[in-house]
Amino acid sequence: MEITRVEIRPMKDEGNLKSFCSVVFDDVFIIHSVKVIEGSNGLFVAMPSREVGDGEYRDTAHPIDNDFRLKLEEKVLKKYREVVGEDSEPVEEEVGLEEEEEEEEEEEEEPVEEELDDDSDEEIEDLSFTDKF
Questions:
Q1: What spatial distance separates the first Cα and last Cα of the chain, rounded to whole Å?
Q2: Residue 37 in 3-state DSSP?
């Protein structure tokens, strides 16, 4: 299952809630009410949930595979940062990006044909509320 679109709706003056999001999978399935939240350790993605009693909440939709959960969080947070103009990411991630850029420069010197990954960032499009589902 691939993430094909991410829609970010930034919130203003809502405390730790930074954005509501919608995520489309394989251009055929959408999940609304995904949230970007500022926690004590930085931004994280919270799945849609509902109250089940006594202030307890349960996710109504969520990944069951940790690798997919990490991939989902990475793509949503990347799109969130693009939309709100946040270029600041943790230093560890910036170092990783620099290493990737150096590798890309080296690859440019030697032309190699390779197929794009199905989950490449070029394939993620904005989801407009005018789209019909």
A1: 18
A2: strand
Binned at pLDDT 50, 70 and 90, residue 54 comes out as confident
| DSSP assignment of 13-27 | S-TTEEEEEEEEETT
The CA distances from residue 80 to 8, 36, 39, 93, 115, in Å, are 6, 8, 15, 16, 27
What's the pTM value of the predicted model, to 2 decimals? 0.63
Residue 34 CB neighbours (<10 A)? 22
C-alpha torsion sign, points 77, 99, 67, 126: positive
Q: Which residues contact 10 (CB under 8 A, 6 or more apart)?
A: 18, 19, 80, 83, 84
Higher pLDDT, 82 or 96: 82
